[in-house]
Amino acid sequence: VGLTLSASLALLGHGVECTDNSPGRVASLAEGRVPILEEGLPELVGQMLAAGRLRFSTSNARAAGRSEFVFLCLPTPSDPDGRADLSFVEAVVAEIGPALRPGTTVITKSTVPVGTGEVLEQVIGRSDVHVVSNPEFLVEGTALRDCLRPDRVVVGARSEEVARNVAALYGPAGESQLIVTDLASAELI
Predict the structure, then answer these.
(1) Contact status, residue 106 vs residue 120, Cβ threshold 8 Å
(2) At what angle do helices 116-124 and 87-96 cross, to 10 degrees?
(3) Strands 105-108, 69-72: parallel, antiparallel or unpaired by DSSP?
(4) Phi and psi of 181, rounded to 5°?
(5) Between the CA of residue 19 and those of 6, 48, 151, what are the distances in Å?
(6) pTM of the predicted model, to two decimals?
(7) Selection from 141, 117, 147 nearest residue 129 by Cα
(8) Most CB atoms closer than 10 Å: which of 44, 108, 159, 174?
(9) How far are the Cα atoms of 26, 32, 48, 98, 133 from residue 40, in angstroms, in the given order?
(10) pLDDT tens per residue, range 54-80
(11) Angstrom distance (rounded) from CA 43 to CA 176
């Protein structure tokens, strides 16, 4: 999700910094080596690296601190009892929270249970940062196409203006099929 979204947003004209906690993976990606099989993704990553619109790093806080929008594309594996393990998401949010600039929008792409947005707002502990849910609907093998030509863009936010700002990142596709809702409804969707 993260790599596909990053390359797609870069293609749409945004400067994107994609982070990962594995220095080896970051070095490989920075050289244009894509470790997943996804039609068109290796070529797009190479093009966006060459264009200077896509870069990779291991510093979540530094990248988040210089960004207007921060997408969380993290694993949420199931616990033995079937509940989503949010520890990866919460750890990254705790790490980046102090580095965020006022007005930054933190966007959850990960599959999360209802109420996660409120938990993340508490972890960040700042009223000058927006937390948004923007669920992904990507299918393995066609994820790049799904990301660039979504059949819908769902954005859950406390403010319609913030939701529309997130949708605008997707270009014309984000506005034409936009569903704006509250955080909990987007998480449920």
Answers:
(1) yes
(2) 30
(3) parallel
(4) -150, -175
(5) 10, 15, 27
(6) 0.95
(7) 117
(8) 108
(9) 19, 13, 12, 36, 27
(10) 999 999 999 999 999 999 999 999 999
(11) 27
